[in-house]
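Dear Dr. H.,

I hope your travels went smoothly. While you were away I took the liberty of generating a structure for the chain from your last submission, since the lab meeting agenda had it listed for discussion. I wanted you to have the full record in hand beforehand rather than looking at slides cold. The sequence, exactly as received, is reproduced here:
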Amino acid sequence: MVYATKNGSKRVQGITRMRPKVHLSKEARQLLTAKQRESSAHYRKSLATAWSTIREATIQIATDHSKSVHKVQSELHMGHSLLLSKHTKGNAWNAFIWKKSQDIEKENISSHGKNVLPSIVHDNLDEYFTLTHEEKDCLVKELEEHRKTRATGQCISTKSKINDVTSTIRTIENELHNLCSRTGVETLLYATRGTTDIPLRGFAFATKGVQNFVASVMGFNDQDFITKMEGFAVQGMK
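The corresponding predicted structure, in token form, is as follows:
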């Protein structure tokens, strides 16, 4: 195809090459479909085998160490997250500035964030140059540990764990209320601790349509159910 531009020159459009369309016979299509289905079946079988192996290993670990299955699953998930997390090597200067900012937060100084960074650098630059190699290595190691903890979302203190659970449960309850309003779906939710490391009471939640379901149909109250659920979760697989 030839077409003219504004300045009068002519340009020739290249010929579009069409790929030849392959027409398969009925027998060839059937054979191809059979191979695709066979490949898909093998793939799903391999996945099922892998999940079965993981479940068996999880139960075995829980049994050997008197832990709940949920705790082992959480530990495995956190370990996998560590493998996937991006690793950035820290340096002594960044670790030093981070440590100083932590000290400022502990002293409850009102200034924080990027605004206080220039003053930290100005006030502590001389101190940084007096640090030994061992002290710098310790700071870098401490910063690396802090990054790992933050990346995996691990709660250090008991209070932070309780706050995490409470906040998450509250968010879930709000979402379930909204879901019920939008779609009419009714939900029962029970949550309890799976380890004795945290002094947490169980949670029971029900949307309006099923609030009396457990007591009237199942014949027991929420507290009894939560108590039994907690006992089963804490004792683990023995």
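Two observations you may find useful: The chain has three domains: 26-84, 92-152, 158-235. The first helix runs from residue 26 to 65.

With kind regards,
E. W.
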